[in-house]
Amino acid sequence: MNNTTIDYADFAEYDRRQRAIERHLLAAFLGGLAVGLLGALVSGAGPGWLGQIYDPYAYLALSLAVGASASGLSWALLTTFLAAVSTLVAAMGASALRGQDAFDIIGGSAAGLNWTLVLLVALGLLAHFTRRQDGWGDVAAGAVGAALIADVVDRSTPGFIDSEQSFWPGPAMVVGLASVVLVVLLRRNTRGRVRALALSAVFAGLFTVGLAAFVAGWIPLAV
Hints:
This protein has about 220 residues and is an all-alpha fold. Helices cover about 75% and strands about 0% of the residues. The longest helix has about 35 residues, at about 10-40.
């Protein structure tokens, strides 16, 4: 009769990983609810600059945190989507109870709401890739920074799609500086930080040029 040795340490490690995944799912859901409810309370109730910074950057920060802390790519996709949906549902539900237009809370319109959802999930996946310590991690960190900086440029530049006159200079400077700091924190060595910052500048510049061409009518796309 063969003697088999059961390594109970493997079972214990598996159990710890499963419990960690469960806690991560719960944290993503509850975090989304909290951020969404707070966003509904902040909208129209506090100073204008607070609402401009909170929407959408508080939602983006939640997505980045959830994606970066996920145990795998598939879990990053699932938990980021869960956090994003719970955020949107909580914010829209709270705004409806207050008699406000739900689309005014996040995104400003139905199309803006859909775009926000896609952006949240995409940033969560990029945040997960920033855990890599190779060139692809630098690219992911650069893309995260570029997405935030490009949004700042869009909201700060008169005539662009989402331009807001009051967003410049205060909120724009705060978010822009925070974006640079975020890219630096996402990399663990000087070389990676320099490459990620350079890629952020390149990606954001390409986006700005494309957006300017679209606004000028050089790129005939229907929206």
